[in-house]
Amino acid sequence: MVTMGLLLALSFVVSLLALAFLIWAISNKQVAPDQHDARVIFEPGDEGHVDSGETATSRPYHFDTVRSGIDAVSTRPVAVLLIAATVWLVIGSVFGLVASLKLHWPDWLSDHAALTFGRVRTLHLNLVIYGWLSQVGIAAMIWVLPRIFHTPLRAPRLPLIGAALWNAAVLLGAIAIANGWTDGEEWLEIPWQLDLVLALAGVFFMVPLIKTTLARQVHHIYVTGWYFLAGILWFPCLFVIANLPYVHSGVEEATVNWWFAHNVLGLWLTPIGVGTAYYFIPKIIGKPVFSYAVSLIGFWGLALFYSQVGIHHLIGGPVPTWVATLSVVHSVMMFIPVIAVAINQHITVGQNLWALKESLPLRFIAFGALMYTMASFQGSIEALRSVNSVTHFTHYTVGHAHLGAYAFVTITMFGAVYHMLPRMTGRVFRWPALINAHFWLVVIGFAIYFFGLSIGGWLQGLAMLDGTRPFSESVILTKPYLEARSVGGALMTLGHLVFAFNVASILLPQRVPESVRTVPAE
Amino acid sequence: MNNYLPLSIISLGILAFATLMLVIAPGIEMARPEPPAGLRPYTAEEQRGRDVYVSMGCLYCHSQQPRAPEQAPDGERGWGRPSVSADYFYDSPHQLGTMRTGPDLLNVGARLPSESWHLTHLYQPRAIFDWSIMPAYPFLFEVKAKAEEGDVVVALPPGFAPAEGVVVASQEALDLTAYLLSLDRTYPAPEDGIRDDGYRPRGDAE
Amino acid sequence: MTADRRPQRDPRHPDEHFEPYELDASIPWPLLGIAVALGVWGAATLFDTRRHEERAQVERIEDTRLATGQAVEPGHALFEASCATCHQSNGLGIRRAVPPLAGSPFVQHGPELVANIMLRGIDGPIRVNDALYDGHMPSFASVFTDVEVAELASYVAARWGENDRVLEAAEAAELRGRVSDLGSFRGGAGVAEDTGLALGDQPPFASGTLQPVAPEISALIFEGRGGQWSCASCHGDLGQGRENTPRLAGLPADYIRKQLHDFAAGRRLNESMAVVVAELTDEEKQALGAYYSGLRVPSNARPDLGGDLERGEQLAREGDWSLTVPSCFSCHGPSGFGVAPEFPPLAAQHAAYTASQLAAWAGGQRTNSSLDLMEHISSALSAADRRSVADYLASLPPVPAGTGDTLAAQGEDR
């Protein structure tokens, strides 16, 4: 297959050239914020530190979102999306916990088809991806984009319609899956007829965000905006192509499946998580991020490399060698953008560790950002053929998936929600200790979950690779680790209940004296 | 970056390029006009059974893609020769799977050809494997006082049979078993078979 | 966390209106270094994999040609590999044990009859040129492809029967289809009867191999009983097995009985077999052993584990003394036809089954061989060796009719 080999080489060369061009352009100031912007936003000697004592309006990089009325417009759609997302999070994690328990109590709840492992697990995945993460991500976009563009959200009623459609589709999708009506591929189980509704709902989310972008009052788009704006373009393309019915079949369908499923992580959930962290970390700390140039590498590197890693889910399978290798190589190349993001975010946090003590939301977000680095490093290494032979087909990959989708994205979004809610409602959390409890429940729960599955999965993989050990050994030895996972999962689920309580407690009308109502603390 | 239009165009361009590389090019390479010799289409019953397999989510624990001997001892375990893309000619939705919480099933019909064994195993896996963590599927069966004409009675070891009556397989269970028994890709791989050969080929020295 | 705290805030803390932005720092050089290093690594990996890929494709084509019989090999090489062990390279056979080919009227009738006998095998007394033989020719139907059958039959007929007719592969295929269900020829008389050819005076065939099966045993085998699945439901109607479900046809009765005992007693572990044997009586185990030992079935095993057949042949015939592994055939009889009751036939056993048992011995899950011989041998073999020898044994013709004892004796003769 000379032609395919050439294509392969071509693809990688194109990616490398694109990255090299980007670095060249950066070093030649081709893509720096232009001079006009610099004149407007910089005042001599004012970069890099925040001086207090002046009024907000007269200072650069300061903008009052409350007085300008921007937040007020966003509050309703954001609140609706957050409430729905929180409900799905709780339901989704209960299903996750049930699925986890069923792996070591296989005869528990086995009398109904709807409660069989294969369906409960699927419900968990779809509810947390489409119900929780996607909605909380869109909520963060609706909150953040108008703020960084200094203009109120346009068409603010559309997201409400979108939310109604989206949640109806997620609910119907869940009912369909529970009753055995499924498209039958991982991450794409919701029947395509309902996917049409999801896609339509997506339009109602996209239009206001893009209209807001076009109406923006600032020239320069802050890095969070790149991630969010690219994400809302990428995800619909992925979703529609992968869900086209009657087009895909056989192994080609499998490549579409994993091209989609990994891009949902890379080009949808990751932009949500990284974009959110990019906004809230400097926002809470009050210091800028380290480098514009590095953030460009992080973003375009993600786009170039992450988009081609999906087939590492089929290593050693019935796909052309070159496409598997292509995904392996691109997976490892992901080190570049991940290190770039790590430099920008961790340096900002690391130089301001005091803020972690001060701000509970920052604690969630900084932890999540750190987990992005960890998950990506782990993913790059896991894609190497030698490592993949052990870890693929085992619970290790489940641990990895949760490191990305949970420890990184979900925990980052928890922080964002805790930061947004007081500013949306003008109220404070009445029991900050519960926020702290939520943090430690999910962090400790996740640690048990992750280390349990990683160690158990690795041992399981080694057992399966050794022909002199019967297959049964790979099952038996994982049982204690699966039990540990249930313990961790139970703590995480408990944490989510606390989270839901916190969200409810601040959104429900409170009997708090008007005098206490003020901009809340972190 | 200051403009949304270039940002959008380049972002989507990169995604289109990735789609070309990961989906379209391999799709063209793997496309073939006809199935390999030795592979037959699913019968109506097997196809119904496949639908049951899909709806029960068997794929979340069972892969259908034996690996090459250079990578893993799948052949020794009786899971069959390394599969090639042509082996999946009739499969949609694909069920390649990413987990081996249970064993690979692409050739389960060859290595476990007993219908009655599968029915027992589906009704209660722990009747055979006391260590198994596979779900039981009692809802695919019916407990009757007496088997009627045409009923397939499930053989159950003592301790797993109901106190009274017999366990009879539903049509779904029979279909599912028919599908499992049809899983047999032991015919020789076609010459132009495509698979990931990225592990050390046999010719290399140890 | 209330408004009261506001005045005591950390003085470094910003006010609410701070807007995130990026500083203008340049790219740190380590990041550039890592990017360059990864780029080089990626290019090298791609190049390396392409080499693997091309090679694997070539090997797969070879494998497929081998499996579908498109390999072009002269009949001579095939004869030396598969026939000469018994009929000898000079075609003279072994006195009183293996009939000669040279000058045999059977061979003189031409390649079609030779091919027919190769495909069906002979089970029963046969007279060749005034000498009487106890015929135990295995069926080679599973071993040779149509092309190979045609080449080999043409070669044998031309060299020892002086018959120049050339059998075409298509004719061999047609013949194979015609005789596939007929089983072995019943001695020389059976050959004469079935083909209508003049073959001289042939001794009458006396059926002695297949005992009538008691109805209860037949029910166990074909229908199962209570909580037990039938034997045939997994091992096939003819005891031929598939993949890692073993071929039982032709295994010694006592060997089968011992294995059933060992499953019941937990000396040999297999969950499904444990269920099946739980309620078998000793008599039933004996009867099942007797039934399967008498079955004569063509082989359906194939070398399909991707093992190295030359290495497998070396291990089977010579062993590997650098590993202190004796040859398989030194205990399991010439051509792996078995030595009852301790040493089961290995020939035509499924490669996945043989390899899985070797692995089980090596891993300590199977511990019931006599004198722990197999535990020792299996542990010394690498995974690749296990596959190689299993593949080679799967490529052999099945155990012929007759007892393992006679064949072992023949082996010693030579």
UniProtKB/TrEMBL annotation, chain A:
GO terms for cellular component: membrane. It comes from the Bacteria. PROSITE patterns: COX1. GO terms for molecular function: cytochrome-c oxidase activity; heme binding. Residues 258-522 form the Cytochrome oxidase subunit I profile domain. Keywords: Electron transport, Membrane, Respiratory chain, Transmembrane, Transmembrane helix, Transport. The chain crosses the membrane at residues 6-26, 78-103, 123-146, 158-178, 190-210, 222-246, 258-281, 293-315, 321-343, 364-381, 401-421, 433-459, 487-508. PANTHER family: CYTOCHROME C OXIDASE SUBUNIT 1, CYTOCHROME C OXIDASE SUBUNIT 1 HOMOLOG, BACTEROID. This is Cytochrome c oxidase cbb3-type subunit 1. It comes from Pelagibacterium luteolum.
UniProtKB/TrEMBL annotation, chain B:
The chain crosses the membrane at residues 6-25. The keyword Transmembrane helix applies. Keywords: Heme, Iron, Membrane, Metal-binding, Transmembrane, Transmembrane helix. It comes from the Bacteria. PROSITE patterns: CYTC. Pfam families: FixO (PF02433). One of its GO terms (molecular function) is electron transfer activity. The keyword Mitochondrion does not apply. Residues 44-184 form the Cytochrome c domain. This is Cytochrome c oxidase cbb3-type subunit 2.
From TrEMBL, chain C:
The keyword Heme applies. PROSITE patterns: CYTC (PS51007). GO terms for molecular function: electron transfer activity; heme binding; metal ion binding. Keywords: Heme, Iron, Metal-binding. Residues 70-160, 213-296, 307-397 form the Cytochrome c domain. Signal peptide: none annotated. Pfam families: Cytochrom_C. InterPro entries: Cyt_c-like_dom (IPR009056), Cyt_c-like_dom_sf (IPR036909), Cytochrome_c_Oxidase_Subunit (IPR050597). The keyword Iron applies. PANTHER family: BLL4483 PROTEIN, CBB3-TYPE CYTOCHROME C OXIDASE SUBUNIT FIXP. This is Cytochrome c553.
